[in-house]
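User: Second chain of the day. Same drill as before.
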Amino acid sequence: MREQLAKTVLTAALGLASVLTLSCLEDKGNSSSNPASGGDGGGGGEQTYKTVKIGEQVWMAENLNIGMGNSICYENDEANCKKYGRLYDWETAKAACPSGWRLPSDNDWGRLMRYVYSENNNRTAGKYLKAKSGWNDKSGGGSGNGIDKYDFAALPGGYRLSSGKGGSFDNVGSYGIWWSSSIDDSREYSQAYYRFIDYNQDGAFRAQDETDALFSVRCVQGDEPPSSGKVAGETFVDNRDSKTYRYVKIGTQTWMAENLNYKTQDHTSRCYPTSGPINNNDIDNSNCDKYGRLYSWKVAKGVCPKGWRLPSNADWNVLLKYTNPSCPQQPRSTEESGTICAGAGTKLKAGSGWDDDGYGDDTYGFAALPGGRKTGVGDDFDIIGSGGIWWSADNYYSMGMYSDLENTAMGESNKNSLHSIRCVKD
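Assistant: Same format as last time:
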């Protein structure tokens, strides 16, 4: 829950910084001042920043205010630097954090969001991270401030648009935007990811922009932990259709590291539709290529390649207890559905490909992806991108993982539903 703040002294000179961490403060209300001269934050002198531990991460609890490279005070007013920190372009932001700290990656931000989601059982991270004051009122009335549950104290420092968008300052008091170190190079012009919180909503959101925009910086401590865990490098070929699958050994078991994508001859498996009517008979196979096919339970029982099988409840239990030895039996009784295993989802989900920061650490290379489902005869397909459900060989049971949960959940499904398949080696 709430963690102790530490007082960190950062000495800034010529764009370099050294770090000295002093003793923790018992009274988190004792905010330390920032003795850096003016709004520049450079040119020597000492700056003092509050820090906070949230989950397993240690974050600065204030925006960075070190003057270097292409950075500036909002509207060139040094008072804004003192209150909100400086605004940085992306290249400068990558080098601005002091020694022992770094610009958080997209995965770092995702870990923070997932921790807040899990702690509060909802998706409104902005409310819990925003400062208790300093935000404009909502447009429909009511306070735009947060409850600052974790002493992160996010403030609306505004931004300056990229030069290609006019280069204007905007929205101080209404928007806070913080760079990540991660680039989205899938576009014609590379853009970097960022997180933003606004006065009018309770959420925290992910987006990307050109790297010459000027946004705020929050630094995170230490090296980045692995985001994609163990890479499943070994493969086998399914002789039925010559498809190649990755597999990974986890404890005493060997699992396929991707969903099965074998097209049954009688059309009893399906690709999740990309558009058009739900019964489009696999006009577009792109979702099968990414997520594998969806199968009914009856078909799933006999569709794994030779030497592999559909995992039973017992097989799933071995896997889940390897991720968390305290995980209860799944399910606890034949009448019980929805039994959860705490933290297992984060360890088994892929490090990308999940909506709303729902991706995992992929600790073992299992690389679970959200292939969606078809819920029954005549029902719609849904939850692609936000949920993955995998059949068990026992009594129509299935194992589920979701964007908004760090846990796994086992429950009984409609036998006519279509779910994904992960095979385990005999």
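The longest strand covers residues 175-184.

User: Great, on to the next one.
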